[in-house]
Structure formats: structure tokens, C-alpha cells
Amino acid sequence: MKQFTTVLKFELTNYIKNKTYMLTTILMAVILGAMMFLPHFIDMGNDTDTPAKIEQSAQQEDLDQSSEENESVDFQETKYMIFDPDQIIDNTLLKVYFPGIAWQKAENDQQVRKAIENKEAKAGFCVEAQNQFTYYILNKDMDNNDPAVFTKLLGVIKQMEYCKQKKLNFEEVTQIFQFENEVQHKEEILGKDMMSNYFYCYIFVILIFMMIIMYGAMIATSVTTEKSNRSIEVLVTSTSANSLIFGKVIAGAIAGICQMGIILGSILISYQINRTGWNGMLDQYLNIPENVLIIFALFGIGGYLFYAFLYGAVGALVSKTEDINKSAGGLQMIIMIVYFVVLAQLSNVDGIVMKIASFLPFSSYSAMFTRAAMGAVELWEVIVSFLILAASVVVAGLIGAKIYRMGTLRYGNPIKFSQALKDIFRKE
């Protein structure tokens, strides 16, 4: 126990003395925590007034544009071309559905194409019939919905013509068919809101993945460095392999947990203090239930320790730091597969894939957490999964210690992980 404590203190001291580690932790905690106080300096009022302001601004812009219909329009004001030989489109409706757009009529579709290619206009429409048009644009943005808006515009024009033929009042008919706008309802979620919990689950899965990859690589590098300068030969003869690897791994776990805890705690506490000022805008990201945080902490620590022991063993199988990635390739592949599978199944946390993954030690650290946060999971499932993970951590630690002791005294070409396991069981 004394040897383990000595190794633990030594490794923790190295982390604390590491300026990059300390500066990163302090700066990120201060900056991200301070960002939660923005409502004291910037108005984070309710966005319900925003649409009205936008509509008012758009109407004013339409009035300004209508007085300058016959004047040339600067491209910076967002100019669109339209070729409508049959005059199907109503200009008034065009301005309502496309506020802030300056329209210029074209004589043919080639003129529309040429104007866009020469960047004289941003986009253009050629109306072939009442139910058919061609949309032209040079570079389409991801949030571009011009064709959908134009389709809706043509639909409204068709409805107006139908009401005119049948001698119906278009406004009255529209109000009848928009009755759903007058319906009010309340929503009371008795279980879990999967959509709301999705966002912080997504972030937490990424955080634990980054923690395992980053600190696991640091542990493997530390072991390999000691082996490359042969200082490990003195260590393994004066200290037990169990004390060495358990001390290194647990020190890395404490350092990682402290860093993540300080940064995450700074964000969550600061947000709770300023939640009223934010009007609950970030609740789906930062208003995380306590039981979810506890499960994330338990399974996150367990998953980290499980892989950290394996990374420590991998570090002992190579003699040069440049060989670490080659030796740890299989382990990293497993971590990546688990990462992508869990993210892909976030929309189906109660599916068979996530249920199986939540009991496997390789994946339960993120799969069970997401199930507990978003899906239907019983308490006994959480307990059984955690016990399996805890037992797997102990087994991984003991196997890692044996591989560590065996691998540290072997130099030359990297030893395969599978071969190391065979040698261990052969000796036993």
C-alpha cells in the first residue's frame, strides 16, 4: 500500500506541475463559467418579440422597395431575378413571401442564368406553369429554403383563383383552414423528455470519449518513456507491478476527473446562478438532473479506469513512443466503434443494440448512461451493469499489471497484445 501511495503521489505531482494541464483547466473553467454571466451585460430577453420585429422591419423594407421599383437595385440588397411570361405570380404576394428581396423581371431564362453566373443576382425563378418552375442559384447554402417558399406561394395563388371562381371569400376560407393556430395546449411529460435530454447526452458521450483517448494516451506514453530510458528496470525491481500501474492509472483518473469536474462544474453552477437571466434558453443543454450526473460520473469513471489499465499495458509492450499508435490501434478501434455506435443509437436508446451495449464493459460506460438519461431502464439494470463494469476494471487492472511487468523487461520490436495474453496464461 505504501508503494502504491508513493507512486500515486509522484504521478499526481507531475500532473499538477504540468503548466499546460493547470493553465488549460483554469482558463477553460474561468472563461466558460464567465460566459454564463452574459445576461448581466447582454439582454437575453424572450425571443417571442423577435418575429414581430422582423415582420415589421420586412414590411417597412417592402414599402421602401415598392417606391423604387423602376430603379436599379444594388446586389448587396439581395437581388433575385424572375421570368414569368404568363404573369402567374402576384407581385404583392411575392414581396410578402420573400421579404427584403429586390426583384427584377427577366425576358427569358437565359437572362436569369447569365445574371446569376455573373453574380448580378443571388438567385432566380423561371415560372413555366402554375405548378412548375425552375430555381437557379450559384452556390446553395445549407439553410436555403427558397424553392419551398416559392412552392407555397404558388399554392396560395392557386387557392386564390379557386376562391375567385367559386365566389368564395379567400380570407374567410383561409381563417377556417388555419383553425389549428387558435388551438392551445399544455404539455406535461411524466417520464423523460428524450428530445430535451438528447443534447447533453450527445455532449457527455463526446466528453468521456475524449477523456479516455487523451488520458489513456498519456498513460501509455508515460510507461513507454520510462521503458525507453530504462528507468523502469529500477522501478519494477523496487516496486511491485501492481503498485506501479494502479498508481499511474488512478493518478491519471484523478487528474482527468478533477479537470473535467472543475470545468463542467464551473459551467453548470454558473448557469444555475444565471438561469433566470437566460430565460431557460440553455435548459436542454445545462439543466441536467442530479441522478443523471451521478450515473454519468460512476460509469464514466469506471469506463475510464477500464481503458486506462489497458492503455498502461499497451505502453509496456513497446520500447519507443513512436510505436504506441501501432500497438494501441486495436484498442483505439474498439473505442471508436463504441463511440459511433452509441451516437448512432441515441435516437433509439431502448433498442436491442443499446441494451446489449449497456451490459458490456467495453461500451457500458456510455451506453448505460444514455439509457438512464433518455430511455426506460430499471434500477436493477443499472446496478448489474455497474457491477459488471467494476469487476471488469479489477480484472483489466490485474491483467494489465501482469502484462506491464512482463512487457517492461522486453525490448526490441513491439509485442502484440494477444501474444502477451497467451504468454501470461501459459506461465500460469
Written description of the protein model:
The protein is mainly alpha-helical and 428 residues long. The chain is elongated, with a radius of gyration of 31 Å. The chain has 19 helices and 4 strands. Residues 46-76 have low confidence and may be disordered.
The SSE string, one letter per element, is HHHEHEHEEHHHHHHHHHHHHHH
Strand content: 5-15%
- List segments where confidence is low: pLDDT < 50 over at least 5 consecutive residues: 46-76
Average per-residue pLDDT, rounded, comes to: 78
Report the C-alpha radius of gyration, rounded.
Answer: 31 Å
Shape: elongated
Concise account of the structure shown:
This protein is mainly alpha-helical and 428 residues long. It has helices at 2-17, 19-35, 50-66, 91-97, 109-117, 146-165, 170-177, 194-228, 231-238, 241-273, 275-278, 283-286, 290-316, 324-327, 329-344, 352-357, 364-374, 379-408, 417-427, and strands at residues 79-83, 102-105, 123-129, 132-137. Helix 1 packs across helix 10 (241-273) and helix 8 packs antiparallel against helix 10.
